[in-house]
Amino acid sequence: MTQRAGTESDGPEPGGGTAAPAIDAGAELDPVHPMRPPAPLFKPGGLSTAEVAERVARGEVNDVPVRSSRSTADIVRANVFTRFNAIIGVLWAIMLVVAPIQDSLFGFVIVANTGIGIIQELRAKKTLDSLAVIGEVKPSVRRDGRTAEISTSEIVLGDVIELGPGDKVVVDGSVGEADGLEIDESLLTGEADPVLKKPGDPVMSGSFVVAGGGAFTATKVGREAYAAQLAEEASRFTLVHSELRSGISTILKYVTWMMIPTSIGLIISQLLVKDNNLKDSIARTVGGIVPMIPEGLVLLTSVAFAIGVIRLGRKQCLVQELPAIEGLARVDVVCLDKTGTLTEGGMDVTELRPLGGADPAYVKKVLGALGESDPRPNASLQAIIDAYPDMAEWRCTESLPFSSARKYSGASFSEGDGENNTWLLGAPDVLLPAGDPALDEINDLNEQGLRVLLLARSARELDDAAVATGVRPTALVVLEQRLRPDAADTLRYFEDQDVKAKVISGDNAISVGAVAGKLGLPGAENTVDARGLPTDQADMARVVDDNSVFGRVSPQQKRDMVGALQSKGHTVAMTGDGVNDVLALKDADIGVSMGSGSEATKAVAQIVLLNNSFSTLPSVVAEGRRVIGNITRVATLFLTKTVYSVLLAILVVCSQVEYPFLPRHLTLLSTLTIGIPAFFLALAPNKERAKPHFVKRVMRYAIPGGAIAAVATFVSYLIARHHYTGQGALEAESSAATLTLFLTSMWVLAIIARPYTWWRVALVGAMGGAFLIVLVVPWLQDFFQLKLVGVVVPWIAVAVAVGAAVLIEFTFRWVDRKFPA
């Protein structure tokens, strides 16, 4: 698990010296392109500018598309070429030929809605793409003997790419240099344990470094790389499950099945059975088919998602997978990694306590040398480097990088006076046996929220598996973590919103509990040491569900704890920024990474907080709730219309009467009772946590509401048919039926708009006022062919609508009690 100095990782300095023995990075010819030259050998100094240009000209570039968003063509295609747009397009073309322009208004509405959907998604794409560039991982690549950060899309075949802790392997390759290089390939192979890599070993894109460092030669780039092939396969499916989208798809499938026989019956009824004017019959037939289609629901869902992305983008939050917004709305447990989430990344050394009479000056030399031995120090070691710069100039003969799994790092030094010593630096409760007197002193410090590292001398070699056994404590290094100023308010928000916060950290349990206590997290006083957690999932789920703060959690345990919470029916969000969080981030329902986090965490997370601000999380959760809660609310309006349209058509077919409405009537009704109100309601604030069973929640209102509206409208229509005779009777009958349907639909809207605020009342009032204007302004009466004749039938229509509204109110309340969602 270690790398000795002066072995095969040694090579000449770039640009000079004798070439080290080259490592073959796959010299066989490419079977797909036999004329392509063999993969290049490892060059410590990297490719030259001329070699890079040559490979670019050959197309050997890592041209994998960014995952951030769909292409413009895909967005246009998805919004234009839909099943329902095709149906409406055909009906629109027919109406343009056989009827006045008023009866073709529904087509212009669809064009406008589709245009709005495209524009909003393109705005969201622009936001996503710009944020993706900001948050893009830039690997360190050697070229012309120098190291520089470049975009992943600029990597070419044969590039030498450097690796350090937390770095993601972006292309396939072969290791050329290795210094304790441990790579986690669990995301690709399922193998949980990190793999120690030596020069000549292959590395696969999609894996990540958990300890050590090194460099490798790119042997496969672009779509030939392993991770790119997996991503291309995975991109055929929705990576985050969307109950909303799948629910809408289910509803649309059933709507289509209902539409086909109903439409056929309506066509036969209006064209063959009734001996009316052909063009008028066609117009009324189309008027019966068009409102069956809940086309606006699909478009409104796309718009709501897109606006959610734009709003979050303004807060420097990159949503890498759109349905993640929906997942956020359902989150009821958020797991927080302490370091980098509740605390800021940096630390400060506040005290050095020598043990056993150790010389403080000598201890500082050891700490300085340990800092110098690690080319990629973590936050704790960086604080030590800042406090104790290396003045000893000892020669490091062997090093052991820090690993989250073992909780310590180490190095062996030749101290120049003939003495060689091996030193370990890490968690005291891991390096010391239980009951050691030093642990009492350490616990006192941990209870103050301080982080303590133990410097210990080992009598064993670093590559000995038992190197940490029987060590001699030499000093305690006390570190103070910087609490995020916004962390307490954020935790309080989650508590207010009934979202349980769980702090899961690899640090000492007492220290983690003290930090959580300072931030006011409920349950912080009952901190659990994860080393005592049960391995059985059911038992672990019980412990994790009952407690809030956990310390000494291994990376695998983080993953197990997420799974245990999910087994209890929780929707889990996981935040983190280090490689030890990757497995848990991937398994969580929603993974949230900090922008300053490791490449690996940003790669697997669905959401990246580019501003590294923990306080952004409430906005993210609130946005998810707003989008999904409002879509669920307005979906009832759309599907109520579908239900009453289908039932009205069936009643008309069975009764062998003219269909009561022209397309212009239903365009007016849809616009005032659904289209305009739904747009405003979909963008309104909504803090209610999204609940499961979308289809059930929507249809339990839509079916009774639509059925009552259909029956009431048909009753008014039949009464009007009995009352009116002679020329203009059909227009008067249609007007009476339209009045009943409008008033009934308005009551459904009034229920959906609850709880009332001033603007919701104003919205409902404005829609009612707009309809009244149509009824009283002569040219609008003529345009929409709506004119109430006499007094008796219009008031009967109002009375029927009032009765229907009362029945809808009681039915909805009964549904709430009988079928709670």
Automatic annotation (TrEMBL):
Pfam families: E1-E2_ATPase, Hydrolase
Domain P-type ATPase A: 140-233
This protein's UniProt keywords: Membrane, Translocase, Transmembrane, Transmembrane helix
Record keyword Transmembrane helix present: yes
Superkingdom of origin: Bacteria
Signal sequence extent: none
NCBIfam families, A to Z: ATPase_P-type (TIGR01494)
Protein name (record): HAD-IC family P-type ATPase
